[in-house]
Amino acid sequence: ANRILGKRGQFWQEDYFDRYIRDQPHFDATLEYINQNPVKAGLYRNPQDWPFRGTTTPEPSTTPRLSTTPGGPRASRPQKASDVSNLRKEYIRDGLKEDDAHPNPIEQFRKWFEEALAANLHEPNAMTLATASSGGKPSARVVLLKGFDERGFVFYTNYEGRKGRELKENSYCTLVFYWGELERQVRIEGRASRVSAEESDEYYRSRPRGSRLSAWASEQSRLVAGRGALEERLRGLEDEYEGREVPRPPFWGGYRAEPEAIEFWQGRENRLHDRLLYRSSGGGGWSIERLQP
Ligand SMILES: Cc1cc2nc3c(=O)[nH]c(=O)nc-3n(C[C@H](O)[C@H](O)[C@H](O)COP(=O)(O)O)c2cc1C
């Protein structure tokens, strides 16, 4: 290139500087910068005449649109499971600063939960519940959050399934929410105890009749010979309770996980994420500390 141009010395600039394109104006400005490069170098007067132009000159009708869909320029989305190590995404949406965090983690959770609702996420109240046996063997599964306040986070389940058995042995549990589109995770650690019978009754009554009958039909987490056996049990219960109110099974109800620590995680650029950890200092007080990503 130097020979053709009659120049000497280094042709390409040393190194490079990469930046994420954040929005349409940023995209348009970058396009314009690239188009003006041959003009600035004195090679052509008009950017359109530059024969090696890889982009269109910005004109309202022809300007390429920046894709803002997930999996767009910020995400690497391989198609094969064997390429999983290449599946990564840069987190750039938001930050979480101590100054902006509510002093009370329940209120901070409310804010983020309302933002998850507003973002129309798929089942924003789905959370992973981790429990452990008395011997320390962990297990985890997804359950639905059905209420939260200063006292804790409530979910409903069968008291005799695996999680119920483990919580009886060891009341420590962890709840994890992952709101991917918002690049957020919330981790709640505490101890779970059963809600009152009245509270469980009230929620049970709000469930559809089919769900109420299924609560009776399932011995949660135990083996069953086949699906037919479960459906037969359900049909038997439908007959048994025909025209009658379905009472709550004594082995089914709610737990409230009372938090001791709540961590809010916000994904950030270059994996330098924000993590704020609230720890209960007793009597309703909370400390806030930052964790390294
Ligand atoms: C999105 C989603 C929501 C769920 N919600 C509940 C729930 O609220 N309560 C429940 O007992 N199981 C729920 N499950 C099923 C549990 O993940 C699990 O299979 C079941 O509770 C048995 O768990 P265990 O054997 O560890 O006790 C849900 C599963 C999914 C995928």
TrEMBL record:
InterPro entries: Pyridox_Oxase (IPR000659), Pyridox_Oxase_CS (IPR019740), Pyridox_Oxase_N (IPR011576), Pyridoxamine_oxidase_dimer_C (IPR019576), Split_barrel_FMN-bd (IPR012349), Transposase_17_sf (IPR036515)
GO molecular function: DNA binding; FMN binding; pyridoxamine phosphate oxidase activity; transposase activity
EC number in record: 1.4.3.5
Pathway: Cofactor metabolism; pyridoxal 5'-phosphate salvage; pyridoxal 5'-phosphate from pyridoxamine 5'-phosphate: step 1/1; Cofactor metabolism; pyridoxal 5'-phosphate salvage; pyridoxal 5'-phosphate from pyridoxine 5'-phosphate: step 1/1
A Pfam family per the record: PNPOx_N
Cofactor(s) the protein needs: FMN
Record keyword Kinase present: no
Name this protein carries in UniProt: Pyridoxamine 5'-phosphate oxidase
Source organism per UniProt: uncultured Rubrobacteraceae bacterium
Lineage: Bacteria, Bacillati, Actinomycetota, Rubrobacteria, Rubrobacterales
